[in-house]
Amino acid sequence: MSNNGDRREGSLEAPTRHPLAWQTDEFYDQQALDTELERVFDICHGCRRCFNLCNAFPTLFDAIDASDSMEVDGVPKEVYWDVVDNCYLCDMCYMSKCPYVPPHEWNVDFPHLMLRAKASRFREQGASKRDRILSSTDKVGRFAGIPVVVQTVNASARNKTARKLLEKTLGVHHAAPLPAYHSRTARKRLKSHLEVKGDSAIAAGETTGKVVLFTTCYGNRNMPALAEDLVAVFEHNGIAVALAEQEVCCGMPKLELGDLQAVAKAKEKNIPVLADWVERGWDIVTPIPSCTLMFKQELPLMYPEDDSVSKVRNAMYDPFEYLMLRHKHGQLKTDFKNSLGTIAYQVACHLRVQNIGLKTRDVLAMAPDTEVQAIERCSGHDGTYAVKKEFHEISKKIARPVVNKVKKAAPQHFASDCPMAADQIAQSLDDNSAEHPLALLRQAYGI
């Protein structure tokens, strides 16, 4: 196949995603999957623009270059799975590099092809104990957050001997940063906000001025201060905040594992609750980009005909996206009391692919004497990829350009919208410190 020609005129249009045909038999058919993998890999081989995004592409290209034919047909099929395992569905190849995405006639959607492969393998083989545990954020969080247990879990995460044992028994790399757990979760801390009515909310543009907060697994059990910071900032700006009656994991960890049935079960619990809030006139925010993306993109592509999924998608916002939309209509307070100095800001991949622009940077830059240096490179974390024994060192290599840029900036603050990405990068910084942009914004307001 010759891949050297110019992109056809249609390819200059904005990329579009096709619905994910995960409920069809062909989606899981191994022969059809192998044929599509070979077709797309051949296109990637002829292009190679994505060689520096993650380790999936170098794995593929190295295998091709080492084969007798130096073409895809010379690569053993088992190597295909090495490529699949190194893809963590960041979506950046689709959104920023590939010239052959739909509506191009070659119809390349590398991330969703990798997802199809993961789903096919999960249906046939299931997953390892390690991968099942790492992706079961609700179960692990409930157990780790038990008051009697939480101190032991957090102490073990900092203990070198315990971490070596964990690596040996479960395959979790001994040096990978692991989040702390809290028994006093964000939902417990903010329970009083369940009573917020939002009667005095002021609409601005497409925003209603009242939001229901989907705290997320991480924001609820691992970083409850994140939800507190969001509520403080939003209420300072006259935005009413409430909590949904219940929530479970958004499903992103299970999606990345290929366990689409588990994603469907999470959807059946979350969507009816959130859709009901939307019908009552509320918007939705989540403080973790991956969770926001799950509701904005992945679930709508899995359920393109589901009206409730569409309602939630249309009402779902990144916190800083929401604040900037309010700012356009004069409803963002700029009564900042404190300078933040220089901020090195890593833009999380799952935020970039939402195509909302650098709203976090724009809001933080409003603080007096504040400079925000945005770094649009991947952290290599992906929630679970970076903690796995076999991928941790690769993930650190992917993060190295970000680390170097942060060090060169010598900032007063380092921040990322994704706390896991922030911890991954901060581990290689001299002071090992990272902050969330919502905490910085609260600091700028002095509230």
From TrEMBL:
Keywords: 4Fe-4S, Iron, Iron-sulfur, Metal-binding, Repeat. InterPro entries: Cys_rich_dom. Signal peptide: none annotated. One of its GO terms (molecular function) is oxidoreductase activity. Residues 211-296, 343-419 form the Cysteine-rich domain. It holds the Pfam family CCG. SUPFAM superfamilies: 4Fe-4S ferredoxins. This is Fe-S oxidoreductase. It comes from Woeseia oceani.
